[in-house]
Design brief:
Number of strands: 2
Helix content: 40-55%
Oligomer: single chain
Radius of gyration: 18 Å
Number of helices: 3
Structural class: mainly alpha
Strand content: 5-15%
Shape: elongated
Strand order of the largest sheet: 1-2
Length: about 130
């Protein structure tokens, strides 16, 4: 129990945990939605939620003029939370549930790969169009 810090994950009850908020941004054609998952989280549960929210924000967070600014800021603030979670040692189960499975890293998820492919295509189009002008 030398790694326990007295803070318990709100989802699984494991310790140690970090008191961080993980945010997401969703933009639809008519409205936008801000999502907030307040902690504390153990490392596994926090990473699972961080990866889920980042994937959703990458995929459906850009569909508006303001969202082009809001979405990257939301994802940047989540990097601070992610670094706090990554600094935690492995969870010590002690609650009613097991810690969440963080799943594959972001760079191995199909939605993120598709987003990056679209981004590369858009950058290439801009470069080609600016070169021909």
């Amino acid at each position: 129990m030398g790694t326990a810090n007295g803070i318990y994950c709100r989802y699984c009850g494991s310790t140690p945990a970090a008191t961080v908020d993980i945010r997401g941004h969703r933009r639809f054609l008519i409205f936008m939605q801000f999502v907030n998952y307040p902690g504390p989280f153990c490392r596994d549960c926090g990473l699972a939620i961080y990866r889920k929210m980042t994937q959703e924000s990458l995929w459906i967070g850009w569909w508006g003029v303001l969202s082009v600014v809001i979405n990257p800021l939301t994802m940047l603030t989540n990097l601070v939370s992610r670094s706090a979670l990554m600094a935690l040692p492995p969870s010590i189960p002690g609650g009613p549930r097991l810690p969440m499975n963080p799943g594959r890293p972001l760079y191995q998820r199909p939605a993120v790969i598709a987003f990056l492919a679209v981004l590369v295509i858009l950058i290439l189009l801009v470069v080609i169009l600016s070169a021909t002008s």
